[in-house]
Amino acid sequence: MSLTAADVKKIAHLARLTMSEADINRYTEQLSKIIGFVEQMNQADTTNIEPIAHSLDLSQRLRNDIVSETDQRAAFQAIAPQVEAGLYLVPQVIEGE
Amino acid sequence: MHKTIAELSNDLHAKKISSVELTQQFLERIKKLDKTLNSFITVTEEIALQDAKTADAQLAKGQASPLTGIPFAQKDIFCTQGSKTSCGSKMLDNFISPYDATVIKNFKKAGTVLLGKTNMDEFAMGSSNETSFYGPVKNPWNTDMVPGGSSGGSAAAVAAYLAPGATGTDTGGSIRQPAALCGISGLKPTYGRVSRYGMIAFASSLDQGGPFAKTAEDLALMMNVMAGFDERDSTSVDHPVPDYTATLNDSIQGLRIGLPKEYFGEGLESNVAKVIEAAIKEYEKLGATIHEVSLPNTTLSIPAYYVIAPAECSSNLARYDGVRFGHRCKDPIDLEDLYKRSRSEGFGSEVTRRIMVGTYALSAGYYDAYYLKAQKIRGLIRRDFIDAFKNVDVLMGPTTPSTAFKIGEKTNDPISMYLSDIYTIAINLAGLPAMSIPAGFVNKLPVGLQLIGNMFTEARLLNIAHSFQTATDWHTHTPEGF
After folding, report:
1. Topology annotation, domain B1-482
2. Domains, chain A, ordered by start
3. Residue B335 is nearest to which of A15, A19, A90, comparing CB atoms?
4. Which residue of A has its CA nearest to B348?
5. Domains in chain B: boundaries
6. Residue ranges in B160-247 assigned as alpha helix (H)
């Protein structure tokens, strides 16, 4: 399967990546090749084969719903790009009056 | 020959050398030799000397464990509290980890010394260490060649004896392939054996941490520290941990070795095949019997992997948003601009490629054709191994189809790079333990023999590898100038 530049632009947006026109062209070619390559999978007959997400047949372990962590907000925010009063700052999202 | 971890441990306990002296020797070697190799991203000299002093105090009090005072290098994918943990990416170039990975905690508890953090392919995505933001690592056997990847820095550092042991992670071969190309021993444990907590995630259903060292005996000593259940890792398996050193010297008389015929076909370089055949002969001399087996779905493992790994990577790497940690673009005009520019500036081209492939494979309308299909093929591959292990105890073959390739040789052709992992990828899809040990040389470049075991048979694999290393000396060779 061959991807178009429009497909690649859409994928880039979904992945929240920005790309120049030159990048778009390069990734269109490379991604088409990779997708073409993985389509070899279609040669395999997988009728009645159960998909496996995990190599061991184990169920997800659960724990009791009790507080087990200590408050480390200060340590985590010490490495954040921009914080104020314990909050992470981002550009304005909601328009003001 | 350089001393192994086991020998250094004896010297430390016999007070022939102190941990501070030993640590200084390795720091000197790094200073002198790593300019050429680029195997370290960060050298933690102050921490190392402090760790060594603590270790010497423990040794003096007689409270030491076998690894107390031994210096190790840690792959820069493991979070180390208070020091930079970059994962080979510009995205995390400014990231000082606020906590320790469980593996790092375990090494600390054992009284080891942290020499530094090793270079790697960006977010462990690569087979040559060329996708690192910090530049490629050189192979100590020939500095025009790649060391393999993604744990290329750890493998090169151990091969050049800048550290007697190091950690790595293996998602599709990232411990075994560099171990093979650098002529050292490396073990990828069973999925769930070593905690993934604090090990930066690439493809969570495949990633597994493990050790690098010169010998299987050293790997066993490291596994005694690394393996075990961790409640902080939801896929950690609560399975008893043996003493991996206890069975090293068991007899391998009557061992049934399976040779997957798909691992000896087209694509395998003939000189590499000869080295592997000679190694198998050596095992026959040691009392093993040889059986041909088939893993018919081997060729499907690469396409299935290059759907599953990118899909999981696109999901895992969504966390890098420029908000909480890591790289943030300058002067974002709005939230979308903040996300998009921070991510595009922070990620290199291989990581971007895989995020894009994964995003596509998981997008509406394509999920069944790609991700679900790949998970079914994963079922087929697991069945291949289950069938093979009905009749044999261990599988053997080459770790890689060729020896180390030239730096730059495959960078413009991602698919050719992906194909070099043909013998390692299926093992991750099946979750099995496997290792690579030195088996000989072709044109002065090392060749690795791969040993694949059934679930949780690491102790047996180490025993089988140790038997080979007792009878041969390939693991004792060191690259000239190092």
Report:
1. Amidase signature (AS) enzymes (3.90.1300)
2. 5-43 (1.10.20.60)
3. A90
4. A17
5. 1-482
6. 176-182, 216-226
User: Which of A28, A55, A62 is the best residue to mutate to test the B interface, defined by the most B CB atoms within 10 Å of its own CB?
Assistant: A55
Contact with chain B for residue A20, Cβ under 8 A? no
List B residues 304-333 in contact with A (Cβ-Cβ < 8 A).
304, 306-307, 314, 318, 321-326, 328, 332-333
Name every chain A residue with its beta carbon within 8 A of the beta carbon of B344: 17-19
What's the rounded Cα separation, in Å, for the pair B203 and B323? 23
Rounded to a whole number, what is the distance in Å from the CA of B212 to chain A's nearest CA? Answer: 24
* A82/B357 CB distance under 8 A: no
Instruction: Please name which of B179, B226, B77 lies closest in space to residue B434, comparing C-alpha atoms.
Output: B179
CB atoms under 10 Å from CB of A87, counted, come to 10
Q: What is the ipTM score, two decimals?
A: 0.94
Question: Over its length of 482 residues, how does chain B's per-residue pLDDT go in tens digits?
Answer: 699 999 999 999 999 999 999 999 999 999 999 999 999 999 999 999 999 999 999 999 999 999 999 999 999 999 999 999 999 999 999 999 999 999 999 999 999 999 999 999 999 999 999 999 999 999 999 999 999 999 999 999 999 999 999 999 999 999 999 999 999 999 999 999 999 999 999 999 999 999 999 999 999 999 999 999 999 999 999 999 999 999 999 999 999 999 999 999 989 999 999 999 999 999 999 999 999 999 999 999 999 999 999 999 999 999 999 999 999 999 999 999 999 999 999 999 999 999 999 999 999 899 999 999 999 999 999 999 999 999 999 999 999 999 999 999 988 888 888 888 999 999 999 999 999 999 999 999 999 999 999 999 999 999 999 999 999 999 999 999 99
Test mutation, B359, B370, B389, chain A, max A CBs within 10 A: B359
| 3-class secondary structure, B429 | helix
Q: Which is nearest to A52 in space by CA: B304, B60, B236, B354? A: B304
Selection from B369, B404, B66, B339 nearest residue B222 by Cα: B66
Task: Tell me which residue in A31, A60, A80 faces B324 most closely, judged by beta carbons.
Answer: A80
